[in-house]
Amino acid sequence: MRRIDTLDDIEEGVRALVAADARLAPIHAMVTAVPLRRSMPGFESLASIIVAQQVSTASAAAIWARLKTHVDPLTPENYLGRGEEAWRLAGLSRPKQSTLAHVSKAVLSGELDLLDLCALPAEEAIATMTAIKGIGPWTAEVYLLFAAGHPDVFPAGDVALQSAVGHAFGHESRPGAADLRAFAEAWSPWRGVAARLFWAYYATIRGREAAPML
C-alpha cells in the first residue's frame, strides 16, 4: 500500500487532486500549506485522537498534557495501573476513560495490534478497530490517516470537514456524513490528502485549527 510519509507525497497528491477536480485549485490557492501531520503508530497516537474527540483544540491539548503527567509513560499497562483517580485528574470524561481502558485491554490481550493493522486495507483496519467498544469510524479513520499514512481515507463524520466542503462548494448547509462520503469518492485514491486540504481550508476561513490533535 502506498503511504503518505513525506511532504513530497502531499504535493503529489494535491497535484493529482487538482488535475482530477479543477474546483480544488482555488481552494488550494487559499491555504498557506497542506500539512503532513504524521505520528508514530501505537497506543499513544490512538490515545491522543480519543482525547481530541468532540472538544476544542485548546481543551484537548490541556487534557492531553495532564494525562501525560499522571500516566507517564503513557502505555496500556500504565493507563490501567494508574486507575480512575489519575484519569479523573487528567480531565478525561467517563466515556473516554472507558474507551481508553477497552483499548488498553485489547492491546495487552493481543486483540488489537496497532502496528500490524497499519498494513491492512482501510476497510479491514476500520472493522478491526471499531470492534473495540468506544472506537467509532471517525477515530479509526483519523488513526489510519495520521499514524498509518493511509492515502485514501476521508473521515466524513468530521464536522470541520463537513463545514469546509459545504463552504467551499456553496452549500446552504453542511453535508452530512453519508453525503460527504459519497461526495469524496471522486477524490480517490487521494482522499487522505483531500481531507488534509480541507482541514487547512477550514483553518484559513475560520481562523482556527480544526484537524485532530496528535
From TrEMBL:
Catalytic activity: Hydrolysis of alkylated DNA, releasing 3-methyladenine, 3-methylguanine, 7-methylguanine and 7-methyladenine
CDD domains to which the protein is assigned, alphabetical: ENDO3c
E.C. no: 3.2.2.21
Transmembrane regions: none
A single GO BP: DNA alkylation repair
Keywords: DNA damage, DNA repair
Gene3D superfamilies recorded: 1.10.1670.40, Hypothetical protein, domain 2
HhH-GPD domain mapped to chain residues: 51-203
Keyword set includes DNA repair: yes
Keyword Electron transport: no
One Pfam family from the record: HhH-GPD
PANTHER family with a match to the protein in the record: DNA-3-METHYLADENINE GLYCOSYLASE (PTHR43003), DNA-3-METHYLADENINE GLYCOSYLASE 2 (PTHR43003:SF13)
Protein name as annotated: DNA-3-methyladenine glycosylase II
Source species: Phyllobacterium salinisoli
Lineage: Bacteria, Pseudomonadati, Pseudomonadota, Alphaproteobacteria, Hyphomicrobiales
